[in-house]
Amino acid sequence: MTTVGFIGLGTMGAPMARHILAGLGPDDALVLNDRTDEKARPLMDQGARWAATARELAAGCDLVICMVPAIQHVRQVCEGPDGLLAGLEHPVTLVVCSSVAATDVRELDASLAEASGGLLHVVDAPVSGGQVGAEAGTLSIMVGGADELVAPVLEVLNLTGTALHLGPLGAGEVAKACNQAIVAATITAIAEASVVAERSGLDVAQMFDLLQGGYAGSAVLKDKATRFATKDYSPSGPLWFWVKDLKAYLAEAEATGTDSLVVGPILAAVEGLVEAGRGEADTAVIQEWVEQGRTA
């Protein structure tokens, strides 16, 4: 019997947990935790269990998947009187699906292993595919960690998409940072092109529909085309996530002696939008930055 814990039932976490619950064996169990049980209720109706605290969850789980926004939130899950560390009774693997810097996840593993007397270790497994991929169960999951820890994690994560072990701890986060650099550059290019096309009198939706069938076509264009055409910035993936993601990429680029040609200016634009109060808007809001001429 395997008991899986899942912490963080937001836009990505809730559908991931749903796929895991549907794919677990009859003798397996899924235990949920979030700030309240509101988002957990539909899954509880299907057989998942609720844990009021991370401490309670840790006591009965073999591995715990954590889908929270940033490294400080992961640490909050682990620490304190109601944290994972306080509830450990046997070895547990913490699967960090958050997009954080590779150095942060390595430091987290070292500190948790020391604080738990070796009972708690980390596997990093950030995901790509957005809300659409999470709902469909088609996420790409980039996994880093020790072989003996990763094997059972892959079995669970493959219920939510395709999980691939890329190397030692931190490898998944490096891959996700590269993914985010590509996504950010693509979204920014599409945003800029939409402004140029509109100002030239083109029907932006029609143009993007045509381009999707050519070399410029991509999953990003398919997902974002309507948003750019209608200027819909209602959040799917909040822009402020990009600040930490792009900083993580630049840190890895610096560590490897690689000059970044595009990510620095994009990060500056994102930080400007966040400072202007647009951080909770969808990443498509980068179009607004271009329209207002703030790239100069």
TrEMBL record:
<feature type="domain" description="6-phosphogluconate dehydrogenase NADP-binding">
    <location>
        <begin position="3"/>
        <end position="163"/>
    </location>
</feature>
<dbReference type="InterPro" id="IPR036291">
    <property type="entry name" value="NAD(P)-bd_dom_sf"/>
</dbReference>
<dbReference type="InterPro" id="IPR002204">
    <property type="entry name" value="3-OH-isobutyrate_DH-rel_CS"/>
</dbReference>
<comment type="similarity">
    <text>Belongs to the HIBADH-related family.</text>
</comment>
<dbReference type="InterPro" id="IPR013328">
    <property type="entry name" value="6PGD_dom2"/>
</dbReference>
<dbReference type="InterPro" id="IPR008927">
    <property type="entry name" value="6-PGluconate_DH-like_C_sf"/>
</dbReference>
<keyword id="KW-0520">NAD</keyword>
<dbReference type="Pfam" id="PF14833">
    <property type="entry name" value="NAD_binding_11"/>
</dbReference>
<dbReference type="GO" id="GO:0016491">
    <property type="term" value="F:oxidoreductase activity"/>
</dbReference>
<feature type="domain" description="3-hydroxyisobutyrate dehydrogenase-like NAD-binding">
    <location>
        <begin position="170"/>
        <end position="286"/>
    </location>
</feature>
<dbReference type="InterPro" id="IPR015815">
    <property type="entry name" value="HIBADH-related"/>
</dbReference>
<keyword id="KW-0560">Oxidoreductase</keyword>
<dbReference type="InterPro" id="IPR029154">
    <property type="entry name" value="HIBADH-like_NADP-bd"/>
</dbReference>
<dbReference type="Pfam" id="PF03446">
    <property type="entry name" value="NAD_binding_2"/>
</dbReference>
<protein>
    <submittedName>
        <fullName>NAD(P)-dependent oxidoreductase</fullName>
        <ecNumber>1.1.-.-</ecNumber>
    </submittedName>
</protein>
<dbReference type="InterPro" id="IPR006115">
    <property type="entry name" value="6PGDH_NADP-bd"/>
</dbReference>
